[in-house]
Amino acid sequence: MDFLHGKVIRIVYGTAHFGKSLFWDASALLFAFYLTEIVGFSAQQMGWILGVTLVLNAGFDLFIGFAMNSFVTNARAASIAHLAGILIASAAFVSFCGIGLIPEDFRYAGALIALIIFRLGYAIGDVPQNAFMSFISFNDSDRARIAATRYVAAGIALLVLTLSFSPIIRLDDVDQQADLFFFAAVIIAIIAISCSTLLALFSRDRHVFGEHVPGPESHQNANCNGANQYFFPVLLASVAVLSLVAPAFNNLEAYFTAYALPAGAAAAYFMTSVAVGKVISQFLWARLGASIGLLNTLQFAAFTMVMACIVFGTTARQGGVFALGSGAFFGAAYGGLLMSLWGLCAKATALTPESTARRFGMFTFFSKMGRSASMIMLGYLLGLFDYTEAEMGAFYMSLIMSLIPLTGAVIIFAVSFKLSGSEQTER
User: Fold this and answer.
1) What is the pLDDT of residues 384-402, one digit of tens each?
2) What angle (nearest 5°) sits at the alpha carbon of residue 62, between those of residues 60 and 65?
3) Which of 146, 183, 326, 376 is the most exposed place for a label (fewest CB within 10 A)?
């Protein structure tokens, strides 16, 4: 792919991913806090409602991946399906973020219904937009750049959310928080629809988004991976592990900001520092992926995550530059793991456009199942201690936010190292 052509594709695709990420990052970062602190649910209720609807989301992903497999075989079809899903998700997202404004007797049922529709709409938009990667990438260098573009866009979305919602989270007036959450949700939905529409319009031009025709390097890489029959199953297991452990950090960021950090710059910008680390690091991860390969990059990212968890667990509660620095370090490591895994998934489907939607449906199925289990676990863990208590609450939250992701990073490192070794042997 030539430089200018590739840049146009990455910008348009990244814009669509930015819009979709506003939904995903809001659900990952803010839904738990919104349900417990604004809507008034207990931690256990929050864990179960988010966990159960994520199980449904995983099932939707798998079903949609198989159902769309014969339809989503090119960029144009993928963009149309993506836009349809975003329209459904937008309406449900706004409804969910208005739950804090309705009478308490209707809140649980309302939240459950809105979340189920949101998960369905998100799945309809998510699977084809993920599959889009395989239709516009032809070698490891392409995949690394496109996967990095995804997470630059996602990181910018996260920056927008953290800068917008950090002041809301620290307000003492719950009614004001509920009003602002709803108002912000309307704006987010408008942006997401606009970004998806842009992708659909651009994908009509075959000069920009042509049919997927893998080049020689795609054949070579796919054959290398095809020699290892465990490549895709191990990839699925890795994303399940990451999705199980990462929410222990991501979903507690808002709680850590509200209750663990003293008032000041650290409290105001902690969530933003995580997003900044995720965005800035993508340029380095993309270069690394293009130079040493995605699998080696995954190993290095997993090792970096181990170091980031240790640094966060030992320094973040001191606040100030320690909280901001350790947050940025974690964001950078997490961004590397995401970029590598999604790039590898695109690589695994490089030669099979007829099964791209199905494979990405499986990939997101395992991702959502891991996250579902994580949400139920976090709801249980938050119920074991008073997370609003400054000293001990901060200690237990930092323990959860460091030890659980560290365990997952060690597993991913070991598995990817073994896979890399077997791939080298079979070559």
Assistant:
1) 888 888 788 889 999 999 9
2) 100
3) 183
